[in-house]
Amino acid sequence: MQIKGKTFVVTGGASGLGGATVRSIAENGGNAVIADIQKDKGEALAKELGDSVRFAEVDVTSEDSVRGAVKLAVDTYGGLQGAVNCAGIGGAAKILGKEGPYPLDQFTRVINVNLIGTFNVIRLAVEAMAACEPVTDDGERGVIINTASVAAFDGQVGQAAYSASKAGIVGMTLPIARDIARYGIRVCTIAPGIFDTPMMMAAPDNVRESLAKQIPFPSRFGQPAEFASLARQIMENSMLNGEVIRLDGAIRMGAR
């Protein structure tokens, strides 16, 4: 599927991995709706990129909120051919810490945003995409791209909630791809390693240096544009379906 003339909803699209993906879509002639809770950043990016990009203030855990972003895409650009799920939160805590057991509400919030929020976007985007006409001779109507993490496979101490949320995304990729194949819609998941996103920029220098040294090659943080490049390949290569792709410089995370 060619990006030119196609429309995508990108959650977490105001910055980081999502922001780079929005830029890539616009640069390749597509349309994007930035679905993000960061209103100021989202509106600024939409203004910078022009008429092919719109902003919707979105909480991915809210059905009404996500429906609003999907509707904006369809009403503005005439249809929907893709959704890229980059919205997510971190957070770390031990199962039993100095202040007691892992707070259940903290665990629940990470699962709600990262896993259930991703599923919420998928189901509502698929509904809109299935109503559109095919855009390729194969009958393809669209593509879903999710963001997991290497933590889905190599979770570290304190990452029980985060790893569980990302492993859930990995686990539902293939069954959803099989489920919605009848509509000509594909699903793939990218599992990034350590990327230079706003979340990582907040880490202390010594932590950043230690993490970078764990990456075999290249021994540096990934750049959001490199994530966006892979997302573009998934959009354009119709044989990529039901797959989870690690994008991590061959890192395998240690326990700490």
The gist of it:
The chain is α/β, with parallel strands linked by helices. The protein has one domain (7-247): NAD(P)-binding Rossmann-like Domain (Rossmann fold). It has helices spanning 16-27, 39-49, 63-77, 104-130, 151-154, 160-180, 198-201, 205-213, 224-236; strands at residues 7-11, 31-36, 53-57, 82-85, 96-97, 100-101, 142-147, 185-192, 243-247.
Q: Layout of helices and strands, plus pairs?
A:
Blueprint: E1 7-11, H1 16-27, E2 31-36, H2 39-49, E3 53-57, H3 63-77, E4 82-85, E5 96-97, E6 100-101, H4 104-130, E7 142-147, H5 151-154, H6 160-180, E8 185-192, H7 198-201, H8 205-213, H9 224-236, E9 243-247
Helix pairs in contact: 1-9, 3-4, 4-6
What do these coordinates show?
Helices cover 45% and strands 17% of the residues. It has one domain (7-247): 3-Layer(aba) Sandwich (Rossmann fold), CATH 3.40.50. It has helices at residues 16-27, 39-49, 63-77, 104-130, 151-154, 160-180, 198-201, 205-213, 224-236, and strands spanning 7-11, 31-36, 53-57, 82-85, 96-97, 100-101, 142-147, 185-192, 243-247. It is of the alpha/beta class. A 7-stranded parallel beta sheet has the order 3-2-1-4-7-8-9, with helices on both faces. Strands 5-6 form a two-stranded antiparallel ribbon. The protein contains 9 helices and 9 strands. The longest helix is centred in the middle third of the chain and has 27 residues, at 104-130. The termini are far apart. Helix 1 crosses helix 9 (224-236), helix 3 (63-77) packs parallel to helix 4 (104-130) and helix 4 (104-130) runs parallel beside helix 6.
